[in-house]
Amino acid sequence: MTGLRARQKADRNRRILEAATTLFREQGYDAARIEDIAEMAEVSVGTLYNYYQNKGDVLVATVSMEVTEVLEAGESIVANPPLNVEEALRALIEQYYDHSLVYLSKEMWRTAMASSIQQPETPLSKRYTELDQRLCAQVVQLVMTLQRRGVVIAGVDARAIGEVFFNNLNMMFIEFCKVDAMPLEELKARVAEQHRPLAALISSVKAV
């Protein structure tokens, strides 16, 4: 019975998040109402408030769902990456970017980013920061894995370099979200171009 209740709770939560993302996209984050989210999710408003206190909580839960799925998909790349620094980075980063708009629109990302900056002590902001840190840790782990396999120069500070790669991909994603007209392929191409020279510098296998 406990397992059934847990599945029912997870199903309700999933319906709430899917309804919220649909309405956020269709109406905009500010215009979407909690009552409409509950109606679309086929739950009562009271039930929704048992899960989330406000729209901000719903939004950060959606970001969390997105990042969790991205991290899970990234695990297989980190565990068995292409034995080429540039190719390995591109595989992981493009996997991040390709998933970034599955649940969230650019407007939703902007709202989440702005809230995390404007109210740094709130649970929403702290959760957003934690998710960023987990993504950064995965990029660092990729560089460390490549170093253990002899692809990255032994003397390189893999943690510092991984953080540099993440900081750049994260900043470029912010720029992408700021410009509604920028296509995803342009973002990926620009980041790959920026990472290419640094990847070459730390690679133990030099191009001929």
TrEMBL record:
Domain spans labelled HTH tetR-type: 10-70
GO function terms (MF aspect): DNA-binding transcription factor activity; transcription cis-regulatory region binding
DNA-binding region as annotated in the record: 33-52
SUPFAM superfamilies assigned: Homeodomain-like (SSF46689)
Source domain of life: Bacteria
PROSITE patterns named in the record: HTH_TETR_2
InterPro entries, A to Z: Homeodomain-like_sf (IPR009057), HTH-type_TetR-like_transc_reg (IPR050109), HTH_TetR (IPR001647)
Protein's name in the database: TetR/AcrR family transcriptional regulator
Keywords from the named record: DNA-binding, Transcription, Transcription regulation
Pfam families per the UniProt record, alphabetical: TetR_N (PF00440)
